[in-house]
Amino acid sequence: MQPVKIINELKGKELCIHNLLDKKGSSFVQDLMAKFKGKSEFDIKIVSKEKVYSDAGQQFVKGLTYKPNKGGILIEISSTLAAQNSVLDVARTILHEYVHADIYRKLKTKSQAQEILDFRKTMEQYKNEQHEAIGALYLNSMRDALKAFHKEVLTNDYNKFISLFGAAPSNNYYEALAWRGLKEHEVKAFTDLSAEKVNALKKEDLKIDFSLKECPKN
Protein backbone atom coordinates (compact mmCIF):
# COMPACT_ATOMS: atom_id res chain seq x y z
CA MET A 1 0.00 0.00 0.00
CA GLN A 2 1.31 3.43 -0.90
CA PRO A 3 1.95 5.86 2.00
CA VAL A 4 -0.93 8.17 2.79
CA LYS A 5 -0.31 11.88 2.14
CA ILE A 6 -0.61 13.65 5.49
CA ILE A 7 -0.85 17.42 5.86
CA ASN A 8 0.41 18.07 9.37
CA GLU A 9 -0.73 21.36 10.96
CA LEU A 10 -0.46 20.29 14.59
CA LYS A 11 1.11 22.54 17.21
CA GLY A 12 2.79 22.26 20.59
CA LYS A 13 2.74 19.01 22.53
CA GLU A 14 0.63 17.09 20.01
CA LEU A 15 3.01 18.09 17.19
CA CYS A 16 5.97 16.85 19.22
CA ILE A 17 4.23 13.51 19.83
CA HIS A 18 3.21 13.17 16.19
CA ASN A 19 6.84 13.74 15.18
CA LEU A 20 7.93 11.02 17.60
CA LEU A 21 5.44 8.64 15.99
CA ASP A 22 7.39 9.20 12.75
CA LYS A 23 10.81 8.95 14.38
CA LYS A 24 13.70 6.72 13.28
CA GLY A 25 12.38 6.31 9.75
CA SER A 26 9.50 4.09 10.83
CA SER A 27 6.06 5.62 10.83
CA PHE A 28 3.72 4.07 13.38
CA VAL A 29 0.91 5.99 11.66
CA GLN A 30 1.60 4.63 8.17
CA ASP A 31 2.24 1.12 9.50
CA LEU A 32 -1.07 1.06 11.36
CA MET A 33 -3.05 2.19 8.33
CA ALA A 34 -1.27 -0.35 6.12
CA LYS A 35 -2.84 -3.27 7.98
CA PHE A 36 -5.57 -3.31 5.35
CA LYS A 37 -4.44 -3.17 1.74
CA GLY A 38 -5.80 -0.72 -0.82
CA LYS A 39 -5.56 2.97 -1.54
CA SER A 40 -7.87 5.91 -2.13
CA GLU A 41 -7.78 9.46 -3.43
CA PHE A 42 -8.16 11.13 -0.03
CA ASP A 43 -5.36 12.98 1.74
CA ILE A 44 -5.49 13.44 5.50
CA LYS A 45 -5.10 16.80 7.24
CA ILE A 46 -4.47 16.81 10.99
CA VAL A 47 -4.75 20.05 12.98
CA SER A 48 -4.68 21.33 16.55
CA LYS A 49 -7.80 22.91 18.00
CA GLU A 50 -8.18 24.25 21.53
CA LYS A 51 -11.45 22.40 22.17
CA VAL A 52 -12.94 19.64 20.06
CA TYR A 53 -16.55 18.57 20.40
CA SER A 54 -18.33 15.42 19.29
CA ASP A 55 -20.58 15.38 16.24
CA ALA A 56 -23.54 16.11 18.48
CA GLY A 57 -21.64 19.07 19.90
CA GLN A 58 -22.38 18.07 23.46
CA GLN A 59 -19.21 16.28 24.53
CA PHE A 60 -15.68 17.67 24.86
CA VAL A 61 -13.44 15.02 23.23
CA LYS A 62 -9.72 14.38 22.72
CA GLY A 63 -9.99 14.15 18.96
CA LEU A 64 -12.43 13.91 16.08
CA THR A 65 -12.25 12.76 12.47
CA TYR A 66 -14.64 14.11 9.85
CA LYS A 67 -16.04 12.41 6.76
CA PRO A 68 -14.16 13.15 3.50
CA ASN A 69 -14.85 16.58 2.03
CA LYS A 70 -13.38 18.01 -1.19
CA GLY A 71 -10.80 15.29 -1.53
CA GLY A 72 -9.57 15.34 2.06
CA ILE A 73 -10.23 14.00 5.54
CA LEU A 74 -9.85 16.32 8.54
CA ILE A 75 -8.64 15.25 11.98
CA GLU A 76 -8.83 17.65 14.93
CA ILE A 77 -6.80 17.05 18.09
CA SER A 78 -7.71 18.94 21.26
CA SER A 79 -4.74 20.98 22.49
CA THR A 80 -6.44 21.49 25.85
CA LEU A 81 -6.81 17.78 26.59
CA ALA A 82 -3.45 16.89 25.02
CA ALA A 83 -1.80 19.22 27.54
CA GLN A 84 -3.52 17.39 30.42
CA ASN A 85 -2.83 13.80 29.37
CA SER A 86 0.24 11.59 29.21
CA VAL A 87 2.33 11.32 26.06
CA LEU A 88 1.20 7.71 25.63
CA ASP A 89 -2.46 8.69 25.86
CA VAL A 90 -2.03 11.49 23.30
CA ALA A 91 -0.22 9.07 20.99
CA ARG A 92 -3.17 6.70 21.36
CA THR A 93 -5.58 9.52 20.49
CA ILE A 94 -3.61 10.37 17.35
CA LEU A 95 -3.46 6.73 16.22
CA HIS A 96 -7.15 6.23 17.05
CA GLU A 97 -8.16 9.17 14.86
CA TYR A 98 -5.94 7.99 12.02
CA VAL A 99 -7.76 4.66 12.12
CA HIS A 100 -11.07 6.51 11.69
CA ALA A 101 -9.53 8.35 8.74
CA ASP A 102 -8.31 5.10 7.24
CA ILE A 103 -11.80 3.60 7.45
CA TYR A 104 -13.33 6.67 5.81
CA ARG A 105 -10.83 6.68 2.96
CA LYS A 106 -11.65 3.05 2.18
CA LEU A 107 -15.41 3.40 2.52
CA LYS A 108 -15.70 6.61 0.51
CA THR A 109 -13.19 5.99 -2.28
CA LYS A 110 -14.40 5.51 -5.86
CA SER A 111 -12.00 2.62 -6.25
CA GLN A 112 -13.53 -0.77 -6.95
CA ALA A 113 -10.37 -2.71 -6.17
CA GLN A 114 -11.04 -6.11 -4.65
CA GLU A 115 -9.34 -5.12 -1.40
CA ILE A 116 -11.72 -2.19 -1.05
CA LEU A 117 -14.79 -4.31 -1.83
CA ASP A 118 -13.67 -6.89 0.71
CA PHE A 119 -13.17 -4.21 3.33
CA ARG A 120 -16.65 -2.80 2.72
CA LYS A 121 -18.16 -6.26 3.15
CA THR A 122 -16.27 -6.59 6.41
CA MET A 123 -17.58 -3.22 7.59
CA GLU A 124 -21.13 -4.30 6.79
CA GLN A 125 -20.73 -7.03 9.39
CA TYR A 126 -20.36 -4.21 11.93
CA LYS A 127 -23.21 -2.20 10.38
CA ASN A 128 -20.57 0.37 9.33
CA GLU A 129 -20.22 1.41 12.99
CA GLN A 130 -16.60 2.47 13.16
CA HIS A 131 -15.96 1.98 16.88
CA GLU A 132 -17.30 -1.57 16.65
CA ALA A 133 -14.97 -2.25 13.72
CA ILE A 134 -11.96 -0.68 15.43
CA GLY A 135 -12.52 -2.81 18.53
CA ALA A 136 -12.73 -5.98 16.46
CA LEU A 137 -10.25 -5.29 13.66
CA TYR A 138 -7.67 -2.75 14.80
CA LEU A 139 -7.35 -3.18 18.56
CA ASN A 140 -4.42 -5.61 18.51
CA SER A 141 -2.57 -3.51 15.91
CA MET A 142 -3.02 -0.42 18.09
CA ARG A 143 -1.82 -2.34 21.15
CA ASP A 144 1.30 -3.51 19.33
CA ALA A 145 2.03 -0.06 17.87
CA LEU A 146 1.77 1.58 21.31
CA LYS A 147 4.01 -1.08 22.83
CA ALA A 148 6.70 -0.58 20.16
CA PHE A 149 6.40 3.21 20.41
CA HIS A 150 6.84 3.12 24.20
CA LYS A 151 9.81 0.76 24.15
CA GLU A 152 11.63 2.06 21.05
CA VAL A 153 10.92 5.81 21.20
CA LEU A 154 9.92 6.66 24.79
CA THR A 155 12.71 4.49 26.14
CA ASN A 156 13.38 6.56 29.27
CA ASP A 157 9.72 6.40 30.26
CA TYR A 158 9.67 2.66 29.52
CA ASN A 159 12.67 2.12 31.81
CA LYS A 160 11.06 4.35 34.47
CA PHE A 161 8.00 2.07 34.41
CA ILE A 162 10.23 -0.95 35.06
CA SER A 163 11.91 0.82 37.97
CA LEU A 164 8.57 1.89 39.44
CA PHE A 165 6.64 -1.37 39.07
CA GLY A 166 9.46 -3.93 39.07
CA ALA A 167 8.67 -5.41 35.66
CA ALA A 168 8.23 -4.40 32.03
CA PRO A 169 4.73 -3.29 30.97
CA SER A 170 2.53 -6.24 30.06
CA ASN A 171 0.48 -6.60 26.90
CA ASN A 172 -2.56 -5.83 29.06
CA TYR A 173 -1.07 -2.41 29.81
CA TYR A 174 -1.01 -1.46 26.13
CA GLU A 175 -4.32 -3.15 25.46
CA ALA A 176 -5.92 -1.11 28.25
CA LEU A 177 -4.49 2.01 26.61
CA ALA A 178 -5.81 0.96 23.19
CA TRP A 179 -9.31 0.42 24.62
CA ARG A 180 -9.49 4.07 25.72
CA GLY A 181 -11.93 5.85 23.43
CA LEU A 182 -13.62 2.55 22.59
CA LYS A 183 -14.84 0.95 25.79
CA GLU A 184 -16.89 4.06 26.58
CA HIS A 185 -18.96 3.22 23.50
CA GLU A 186 -19.65 -0.27 24.89
CA VAL A 187 -18.44 -1.95 21.72
CA LYS A 188 -19.21 -5.66 21.50
CA ALA A 189 -15.56 -6.70 21.35
CA PHE A 190 -15.11 -5.12 24.79
CA THR A 191 -18.40 -6.19 26.40
CA ASP A 192 -17.67 -9.77 25.29
CA LEU A 193 -14.47 -9.85 27.36
CA SER A 194 -14.53 -11.94 30.51
CA ALA A 195 -14.89 -10.23 33.88
CA GLU A 196 -11.39 -11.47 34.73
CA LYS A 197 -9.94 -9.82 31.62
CA VAL A 198 -11.79 -6.54 32.23
CA ASN A 199 -10.49 -6.40 35.81
CA ALA A 200 -6.95 -7.06 34.59
CA LEU A 201 -7.27 -4.23 32.08
CA LYS A 202 -8.63 -1.87 34.74
CA LYS A 203 -5.60 -2.51 36.96
CA GLU A 204 -3.22 -1.79 34.09
CA ASP A 205 -5.17 1.31 33.03
CA LEU A 206 -4.45 2.91 36.41
CA LYS A 207 -0.71 2.73 35.70
CA ILE A 208 -0.98 4.79 32.51
CA ASP A 209 -1.31 8.01 34.47
CA PHE A 210 2.20 7.45 35.87
CA SER A 211 3.76 7.83 32.41
CA LEU A 212 5.42 11.09 31.39
CA LYS A 213 3.32 14.17 30.67
CA GLU A 214 5.80 16.33 28.77
CA CYS A 215 6.90 15.32 25.29
CA PRO A 216 10.68 14.64 25.15
CA LYS A 217 12.44 16.98 22.75
CA ASN A 218 14.99 14.48 21.52
Your description of this structure?
The chain is an alpha/beta fold. The protein is 54% helix and 11% strand. It has ten helices and six strands. The protein has helices spanning 12-21, 28-33, 79-84, 87-108, 114-125, 130-152, 155-165, 171-179, 188-191, 195-208, and strands at residues 6-9, 43-49, 52-53, 60-61, 63-65, 72-78. The strands form two sheets. Strands 1-2-6-5 form a four-stranded mixed sheet. Strand 3 and strand 4 (60-61) form a beta hairpin. It is globular, with a radius of gyration of 17 Å.
Low-confidence residue ranges: none
Helix content: 40-55%
- Number of DSSP helical runs: 10
| Overall strand count | 6
In terms of DSSP E residues, the strand content is 5-15%
Give the overall shape, derived from the CA principal axes.
globular
Largest sheet: 4 strands, mixed
Note the run of SSEs as H and E.
EHHEEEEEHHHHHHHH
User: What's the pLDDT, averaged over the residues?
Assistant: 90
Main β-sheet, spatial strand arrangement = 1-2-6-5
Radius of gyration: 17 Å
The first-to-last residue Cα distance is 30 Å
Strand-pairing-aware structural class: alpha/beta
